[in-house]
Design goal:
CATH architecture of the largest domain: 3-Layer(aba) Sandwich
Strand content: 25-35%
Bound molecules: malonyl-coenzyme A, adenosine monophosphate
Distance between the termini: 51 Å
Number of strands: 27
Helix content: 25-40%
Radius of gyration: 24 Å
Number of helices: 16
Length: about 525
């Protein structure tokens, strides 16, 4: 059964029921089916073939949902994009994916038209109508298509290409099938006791697997209702939960941190909430305990990746262990691999590898990276961890330098490459520093070009390099660097701080010693 068929069973069962409450609007399952059918029929009239790639560059809201579903209903492959992406990210994704069509808001169109590469058809999604801006001029996009969906789509067909930050400095498109997404959401619905009677409060961004593959897909698979928000606001979330309007909440640890830091948390009674779930980054045991103390809920932590959707989860009914990401989900094989390629025993640490119907098909246009990502049909997550004696997985770091800031992944190389193009920068290294709210924050260590001048001047007995580097504001202001990066890369990748250094510490092989750099920040 494809994802389309799974969702169609909900639409035909409860067409009158409200699926989404969004900014004062109520959208029924029947309305979603009608709007998605229209989008699908309209895409076909633009000669979008099954398997073609179509991007969605929209913020949270019903339009994003109609676009995503409509693309799959047409048999095409959707590419979710963060509206915060800058020129560099977008040029690469359009070039790599060959996306033919893009759904976006009219106000984003000028940004797209400035890019080196963009899709042949831009669909400007307006309140009244959806306008097609393409090679053949401007016209109405939507045609009637009630009830239309491509019922020939199979489990093995691609449903989504989700771009994940890449170690090489450019993101990679993870190819995810209908079967990957369908099997995973069915498993999660079972594991978390998620039924039609639930009401989900969803404040996650809908362009990542967490908000989309769990949140939206969960609503469409179960037929539960969802209060959907444009963004996360801790007071608003607590007020909604306090009023008993939602029974289920899912978020990243930064959200739970903010929920635990509000003034007078005793104002809020969360006893009518059934379940709160955390993932995308490590939930500190101290936060698990604090949240339980304040609100009486043991947060259920689970673990996933864009490439595999969800792998493990703490149990609904059994023990939820703080500091552990729980047990492998039914049907998902999770093992820990040793240095020699052998599977390790409980208590032994190695790389976490995953096999199952949830595992993606590889990276688009990247046969080498795909080959390197698998060993004996197991996907190498790059996460390090071990199983305890009860079969619970504990994560303990990563093989790569990946930074996870507030649940968003940032690869240092990508940020370094852009910083290195700044005229005042000689060389830059980016690392993650521990942060109580974000988990890790992006930080840049920069050797400024001026330093060479300073060195020369110090030869003449004037300003020494040490002095020049310590008066960093004179050389490169953080605000100057931020302004330079803005528009090129998404805001969450922009360093929260800069430390100017006279050189980057390296080992004998010339590799930058990031841990040593982090120590220079004294953290
Ligand atoms: C926003 N900003 C961040 C940031 N989020 N900076 C660092 N790290 C982050 N996570 C910056 C913005 O660029 C902006 O900067 C400023 O903060 C305010 O932006 P905002 O949009 O108002 O931020 P806020 O609402 O506070 O966002 C915090 C957050 C958000 C925690 C709500 O980051 C978030 O929704 N995170 C969830 C990410 C997620 O869904 N990950 C799932 C990946 S899938 P400026 O300078 O421009 O003002 C995955 C698999 C799995 O990992 O297992 O789930
Ligand atoms: P992404 O590529 O954005 O899908 O992020 C996937 C990464 O998020 C994983 O490889 C992990 O490093 C991290 N992650 C997801 N869930 C958890 C969790 N519960 N605890 C720790 N790390 C997590």
């Amino acid at each position: 059964m494809s994802l389309n068929e799974l969702f169609m069973t909900t639409f035909s069962r409860i067409p009158e029921k409200v699926a989404f409450y969004f900014e004062g609007r109520e959208i029924t399952f029947g309305e979603i089916e009608r709007r998605a059918g229209e989008v699908a029929a309209s895409l076909l009239s633009l000669r979008v073939e099954p398997g073609s790639r179509v991007a969605v560059f929209l913020p949270n809201g019903p339009d994003l949902i109609y676009a995503h579903l409509g693309i799959n209903f047409a048999g095409a492959v959707r590419i979710p994009l963060n509206p915060a992406y800058g020129e560099r990210e977008l040029n690469h994704i359009f070039e790599d994916s060959g996306a033919e069509v893009i759904f976006t808001y009219p106000e984003y169109v000028p940004r797209l038209k400035k890019l080196r590469v963009y899709p042949r058809e831009i669909i400007a999604v307006g309140e009244e109508n959806w306008v097609r801006i393409g090679g053949k001029g401007i016209g109405d996009f939507l045609v009637a298509g009630d009830g239309f969906y491509d019922d020939e789509v199979k489990d093995s067909d691609l449903a989504m290409i989700a771009y994940t930050s890449g170690t090489t400095g450019l993101s990679k498109g993870a190819m995810i099938t209908h079967g990957n997404l369908r099997s995973n959401i069915e498993t999660l619905v079972q594991s978390w006791g998620w039924t039609e009677n639930e009401r989900l409060l969803l404040t996650l961004p809908l362009f990542h697997i967490h908000g989309l593959g769990l949140g939206i897909h969960g609503v469409l698979a179960t037929g539960c209702s969802c209060i959907l928000k444009p963004k996360f606001d801790p007071e608003e979330v607590l007020n909604i939960l306090n009023r008993g309007e939602a029974t289920l909440f899912m978020g990243v640890p930064t959200m739970y941190h903010r929920l635990s830091e509000v003034q007078e948390p005793s104002r809020f009674d969360l006893s009518r909430v059934r379940l709160v779930i955390s993932g995308s980054a490590a939930l500190a045991p101290a936060l698990f305990h604090k949240f339980e103390e304040l609100y009486g809920h043991k947060i259920l932590e689970r673990y996933g990746l864009t490439e595999t959707i969800m792998n493990t989860s703490n149990p609904l009914d059994g023990v939820r262990k703080p500091g552990s990401v729980g047990l492998p989900l039914p049907g998902v094989e999770v093992r820990v691999l040793g240095e020699k390629g052998d599977f390790l025993k409980p208590g032994e640490s190695g790389e976490v590898v995953v096999k199952g119907p949830n595992v993606f098909q590889g990276y688009l246009n990247q046969p080498q990276a795909t080959e390197a990502a698998f060993v004996n049909n197991f996907f190498r997550t790059g996460d390090l961890g071990f199983f305890d004696g009860d079969g619970y997985l504990h994560l303990a770091g990563r093989k790569s330098e990946l930074i996870i800031s507030g649940g968003y992944n940032v690869y240092p190389r990508e940020v370094e490459e852009v910083i290195n193009t700044h005229p005042k920068v000689k060389e830059a290294a980016v690392a993650g520093l521990a942060d109580p709210e974000l988990g890790e924050k992006v930080w840049a260590f920069i050797v400024p070009k001026q330093e060479e001048e300073s060195n020369q001047r110090s030869d003449n007995g004037r300003l020494s390099c040490k002095e020049a580097c310590s008066t960093k504001k004179e050389i490169l202001e953080l605000s100057e660097l931020k302004a330079f990066l803005q528009g090129q890369i998404a805001g969450y990748k922009i360093p929260k701080g800069v430390t100017l250094v006279s050189e980057l510490p390296r080992n004998a092989m010339g590799k930058i010693l990031k841990n040593k750099l982090k120590e220079t920040r004294g953290r």
